[in-house]
UniProtKB/TrEMBL annotation:
CDD domains: alpha_CA
Keyword check for Signal: yes
Gene3D superfamilies reported for this sequence: Alpha carbonic anhydrase
Segments forming domain Alpha-carbonic anhydrase: 20-281
Signal peptide stretch: 1-19
Protein name per Swiss-Prot or TrEMBL: Alpha-carbonic anhydrase domain-containing protein
Family according to the record: Belongs to the alpha-carbonic anhydrase family.
This protein's UniProt keywords: Signal
Keyword Transmembrane helix appears in the UniProt entry: no
Lineage: superkingdom: Eukaryota
PROSITE patterns, alphabetized: ALPHA_CA_2 (PS51144)
Length: 310
């Protein structure tokens, strides 16, 4: 492994700026130091529901998959996002859901500035307030850093986030408590949650409808190593909670002059090119039925509309 490659891998693992630096303020220049960013299978993308091809072989994600809490959870400010590293995260081993056995390694968030939208993926051209990414690596590789550059190395589950919930989302509140407590607001700060909790606690009630495509990391080094799963139903948080992300996570170290909030830490959508987006054939959280494509949208809209969102 040469030094440059090592630096890039370390950069991905730690979110630090070891090796070449990059910034959300200068996205067009990413490819200069990270050539994969100019590839033709990049993420995020605009997901157009009517263009997605129903794949009846795609299985139904169940909440039970996410039940097991990790051994420990380290929340940290990477200078680019708020990230939670998982020790011994849950494993998904179901070929109808993911092409291999994948282990959850970390999750992190993307958001915008106040009064703006900051999800990475778009849904039918619409940008949500933010987006949660749960990053998993293929267990045929020893760790996340090794898997990150392999074509079959990573699986990311993406959940849109909406800031329209009339009250605080109690599960998300637990995640951001270290920000409220002024523990991880500045670059390189971290904290361990006193009690771990499962991913299941903050997922939407309905996780049956999802979209699938082959893509990349959404920031340098932009490796095209990700099988993406983007769920149609958002996680809903309160405006107060959204404001904590927007104004209380800083890209500078504590004690530096002034504070610079991390805002707009999302990459704009990339061309789909020759790729196909597929979608699951399920509609409700409890249903296990599928139906012809031409009935899908109307019937799902009816069924999903009756399901309350946590
Ligand atoms: Zn991400």
């Amino acid at each position: 492994m040469n030094a440059l490659f090592l630096a890039i891998v370390l950069s991905f693992e730690t979110g630090s700026t070891l090796g070449a630096t990059w910034s959300y303020d200068d996205i067009p220049s990413w490819a200069t130091n990270y050539p994969a960013c100019a590839g033709d299978q990049q993420s995020p993308i605009n997901i157009v529901s009517d263009d997605a091809v129903v794949d009846a072989d795609l299985g139904n994600f169940k909440h039970a998959l996410f039940d097991g809490p990790p051994q420990s959870m380290l929340v940290k400010n990477t200078g680019y996002t708020l990230q939670v590293d998982l020790t011994n995260g849950y494993i998904i081993n179901d070929s109808s859901l993911l092409p291999g056995q994948f282990k959850a390694a970390q999750f992190h968030f993307h958001w915008a500035a106040p009064n703006a939208a900051g999800s990475e993926h778009l849904f039918n051209g619409n940008q949500y307030w933010g987006e949660l990414h749960i990053v998993h690596y293929n267990t045929k590789y020893p760790d996340l850093g090794t898997a990150a550059s392999e074509p079959d190395g990573l699986a990311v589950l993406g959940f849109f986030m909406a800031d329209d919930y009339p009250q605080d989302n109690t599960a998300v509140e637990r995640i951001i408590q270290p920000l409220v407590d002024d523990q991880v607001n500045y670059y390189k700060e971290n904290a361990t949650y006193s009690a771990t909790f499962s991913m299941e606690t903050f997922l939407p009630n309905n996780i049956s409808v999802y979209y699938r495509y082959q893509g990349s990391l959404t920031n340098p080094p932009c490796y095209e190593s990700v099988v993406w799963t983007v769920f149609s139903k958002p996680i809903r948080i309160s405006r107060r909670q959204a404001n904590i992300f927007e104004t209380m996570v800083f890209e500078n170290a504590r004690g530096a002059n002034g504070t610079v909030p991390i805002n707009n830490n999302y990459r704009p959508v990339q061309p789909l090119n020759y790729r196909t987006v597929t979608r699951s054939s399920y509609c409700s959280g409890t249903g296990s039925f599928s139906m012809p494509t031409f009935h899908f949208t109307a019937l799902c809209a009816t069924v999903v509309g009756l399901i309350t969102v946590r």
